[in-house]
Structures are given as C-alpha cells and as structure tokens.
Specification:
It contains 6 helices and 11 strands. It has 291 residues and is an alpha+beta fold. The N and C termini lie far apart (143 Å).
C-alpha cells in the first residue's frame, strides 16, 4: 500500500503537466481571398485559398495595387472555438526583418477576420521586391501555449502606370549639424557731414526764436523780479531743460539706452517739480496785471 501511495502523487503531477503541455492555441477553417477593389457585383474572387494550422500555402499570394486581401478563420484553444487576447496577421520583409501587424477582429466563438488593402501597407513593405512572409499570432492569458507560424508568402505587385511610392525619411531627434550664426553688428552713427547739417539747422532756429520773442513783446525787465521771487525754481527749471538736451547729446554720442533712461527719469522729475513752482510764479504776476 505504501508502495502504491508513493506513486500516486507523481503520477497526478505528471498527468497535470501533460494536460497543460497539451493545451495550446490554433485555428481551423481558414479561408484566404484576394479580390479586386472595384470588382463588379457577383464577380468571382481572383484567388481563394483554404488551409488550417497544420498546413501552409505552397505558392505565393499575388497582391496587386487594386486588390484587397481578406482572411477568415476560427481561433481555437484545445480544439474549441474561443476568443484569444491577441490575434494578429503579421507581414514581414525577410531581408530587413521589418514587420507590420494587422489585428484580427475576433468574436467570442473564435470567428476572426482581417482585411488588408494595398494602401494599408507601410512604404517599406509596399516597395518590397521579394515576397513578404505572412504569419499568424494567437495568444492569451493562462497556461495555453501561443501560436505563431509562417502560413504563406505575399508577392507585392504595383501598377506600372501609377505614381511611384516615395519614401520620406522619418523625423528623428538626435545630434544635428553645427549652426554658425552671424549676429548683426552694432548700429553705427550716421556720417559726420549729415550730423553737422542737422546741428546747423537746429542752431539756425535760435535767432528765429529770439526775433519772435522781440516781435511778440517779450519783457526781460521781469527777469530780476522772477529770480527774486523764486530763484531756485526758475534756476532749476532752466537748468533741467539744458540738462535734458545734454542727456540727448550723450545718448547720441556714447550712452546706451540703459544708461540714458535713469538720467532722463531724474532730470524729468526735477523739471516737473521746479516747473510747477516757476510757472506758478509767472501766473501770479500775470494775474496781477504785469506783462
């Protein structure tokens, strides 16, 4: 009895392992059809092949530009129709190894279908000169062994009258060529002759200004009274005007904008405060009737 019991447990484990090893995915009732895209109603397919997971197609399937390739099959696990978690028809270019997977639409009973048009092929496969390898992939969760097998070859044929397919190199991030950038030079002052012309034009307006004051009746006799009433305000106001002209000259000759703006802020503030006081003094004399 002890001898028999010692064999029971190993036999059970061996049987369970054999059952798991025998569990695998496959398919049956596969039907491959190749038909023209604009075929007339009731017209026969150009090519019809039938096979299962134990066989492969001996001759390549011709796939022209106007064709549509359709595969129907029943996915099975241990001989029973079932929906796998993964179901793909993979087309592979044998020389480069590039692959393009096409997922199958699968129902709960295992009925699966996939349709591939010539326009669905990637450029690398559409311009292939050697036949493509078509393999089927079926797999799911659990202990069942997945299925992957080359089933048939696909010979790509293009319409010679159609425009050739142009391969566009994909954008890839990486090291680029060195860029040599030439920055724009610093702005230069205009020629001296031009500057002198404008300086003389400005200076020529001073006599015109003085003559206009005399023609309008400027009264210089009020200058001592104005300076006596508000000497700081009048002096600072006149000085700020001259200083502002000096700031503009320095900006034109040597200063940059960041050097000029703070000085303009200080001089402008002084001109505003002193001008308010100085012009208020002038207004008081005019209200008193002094001209």
């Amino acid at each position: 009895m002890r001898f028999l019991r010692s064999f029971v447990a190993p036999l059970l484990l061996l049987a369970a392992g054999a059952a798991q090893a025998a569990s695998s995915w496959g398919f049956d009732d596969a039907k491959l059809t190749v038909s023209a895209k604009k075929a007339a109603a009731g017209a026969k397919e150009k090519d019809v092949r039938q096979f299962n997971d134990k066989t492969t197609l001996a001759t390549p399937v011709v796939f022209e530009s106007s064709d549509s390739l359709k595969l129907l099959l029943t996915a099975k696990e241990n001989g029973k129709g079932k929906r796998p978690h993964q179901a793909f028809l993979v087309l592979r270019e044998p020389t480069s190894g590039l692959e393009a997977p096409f997922p199958l639409t699968v129902k709960d009973n295992g009925k699966a279908t996939v349709e591939i048009k010539h326009s669905d092929l990637p450029v690398q496969l559409a311009i292939a000169t050697s036949p493509l390898k078509a393999s089927l992939v079926l797999a799911s969760f659990g202990s069942a062994e997945g299925f992957k097998k080359d089933l048939f070859d696909v010979e790509i044929k293009r319409d010679p009258t159609s425009a050739p397919i142009a391969y566009e190199k994909p954008l890839r991030y990486g090291k680029q060529k060195e860029i040599h950038h030439i920055f724009r030079g610093d702005p230069k002052s205009p020629p001296k002759i031009v500057s002198l012309v404008f300086v003389l034009a400005v200076l020529a307006t001073l006599p015109v200004l003085f003559l206009s004051w005399l023609a309008l009746g400027a009264n210089l006799s009020h200058l001592p009274k104005a300076l006596g009433a508000a000497p700081v305000a009048h002096g600072l106001f006149f000085g700020s005007i001259v200083a502002m002209e000096g700031v503009f000259f320095m900006y034109y000759s040597s200063w940059n904008l960041f050097q000029t703006l703070p000085v303009i802020g200080v001089v402008g503030t002084a001109a505003f405060l002193s001008g308010t006081k100085a012009l208020g003094e002038v207004q008081s004399r005019r209200l008193a009737g002094e001209r």
